[in-house]
Amino acid sequence: MTDSPExxxxxxxxxxxxxxxxxxxDRHGYAIILDVARRxxxxxxxxxxxxxxxxxxxxxxGLITETKTRPAPEMDDxxxxxxxxxxxxxxxxxxxxxxxxxxxxxxxxxxxxxxTT
Amino acid sequence: MPLYRLLLHxxxxxxxxxxxxxxxxxxxxxxxxxxxxxxxxxxxxATVVEVFSNAAAVHWEIAKRDLRYSVRSLLRSPGFAxxxxxLITIGIGxxxxxxxxxxxxxxxxxxxxxxxxxxxxxxKHPGYSMRELxxxxxxxxxxxxxxxxxxxxxxxxxxxxxxxxxxxxxxxAWVTGNLFSTLGRPxxxxxxxxxxxxxxxxxxxxxxxxxxxxxxxGSRAVTRL
Lengths: 117, 225
Hints:
heterodimer; A: three-stranded antiparallel sheet; 9% strand; globular; B: alpha/beta; 7 helices; 15% strand
């Protein structure tokens, strides 16, 4: 576990997408896969192996945590585990977003990216 | 699904115990969302490739973590680290020595052609299951032999070599003249490079010190062939 968000940058794209997926609500593994696929228009489709390998590492780094809060039993599946972003995870996601924003700014100044979005 | 469960065995057992159920559930959902034979085959193919690559990566990550943990632990207690290092060194050395010995004694064939045909003949006496033949018995057995292609005899002996500079204690053997032809390696004397004592004079090796048994064991008895 680390205390400095910047020490974990740059993030792997998979890690960043998982953090984004958990930014607004707690999700289980398959919900993360579906959310990432939806948000990227199907361009990034995480496999179960890739997802849980990332989740294991993110748990160790303290970016996410497993939450005991579960939905109503009729909406739940006991095999599922739900994950929640931690304050460190939020800080790291913000730092990564800032890094990407600065990169985009530089790209615009160099004319390799459109000046307006 | 049993096949997917089987594939999951490529992952470390701790990882499988932690995430195996969820991964199986996700794969089952993916399978339900897939339609057609081509889609199913494609999903299986992608899954097999993904499991192989991810399992290797997980093994590597765990190995790296264990290695980091080990190094940190050892650095915290250098005395233990040095002791462990020495013990491992001794263990590896002993292992290599035992393997070398076992390899020479048990695994490698004897350095003679058709060594599988070589046998050693012993005498059996009450209370002694394996005794070397006496010279007289060897002579009698050889005279009556109809079973062996050839019979030869030797016995170990150590002697002092004098008259050639500083005296030396040399290990050697009395051998019958037909020993090395029996072994199929008349040149073996050169390989062994030790002192042999021959009481028959039909040996003709080069570069080997021999004693001529017809003479005394004084310095004048030494002859270099």
